[in-house]
Hints:
The protein has nine helices and no strands. By secondary structure, it is mostly helical.
Amino acid sequence: MSAIFDFNQTVAIFMAFFAVMNPLANTPIFLSLTANETSDVRKAMAFQSVIVAFCITTTFCVLGTQIFHVFGITIYAFKITGGLLIASIGFEMLHGETSKVQKPDLEAHEESRDRILSSAISPLGIPLLSGPGTITTAVNYGATGQVKDMFATIIIFGFLCLITVVAFVFGEQIQKFLGQIGFNVITRLMGLILGVVGVQMLITGLQGAFPFLGHA
C-alpha cells in the first residue's frame, strides 16, 4: 500500500482535485438546479453526476498517454496549456468569480423533471465536476506512464466523488451552517490553491520542454 500511496503525493493530488472540483462551492449550484424537488430526485441527480464525472476522469487517467499519441501532443505541452488553464480558473475564483469554463448557464435549463435529471450529465457531470480543470489535473497526475500513479489518482478522485455526493445530498444543511460568507471564503481559498497548482504545472512543463531552464 505504501508503494502506491506516497503521503506527499496523495495530499497534492487530493488538494488539486478538491480545489478544481470544489464540492462545497458547487453545492449552491446543485441546490439551485434541484430547487423544489424531492429528496429522492436530489439523491439520484447527485449520484448520477458523480458517476459521469468519475467515468470521464478515469478514462483520461487510463488513456491520457494514448490520446496524446493520437493527436501528436507531448505531456509537456499539455502541462503548459493545462497549467495556464488551471491558474486562470484559480485567479478568477480568488477574486470571487466562477470561471466560465466551469460554470454552467443555469438560465438555459428548463425547470422540468426530465431536464433536471438530464442535468446530472450536463452541466453538473460535465463541465462542472469533470471540466477541463479536472481532466487536466487527472492527466497531470495519472497519465505519467506509471501504473501506480494512475491507480492512486483514480482512487483519490473516487474518494472525492464520495465527498461530493455527501455535500450535494446534505447541501441545504451545509449551506445553512456555512452561510454565504463561508462559501465565499472557501471559494477564494480554493482559488489560491488552484493558482499555485497551475503555476507549478506550468513550471514543470516548461522545464521538460526546455531542459536548459533547469529543475527546481
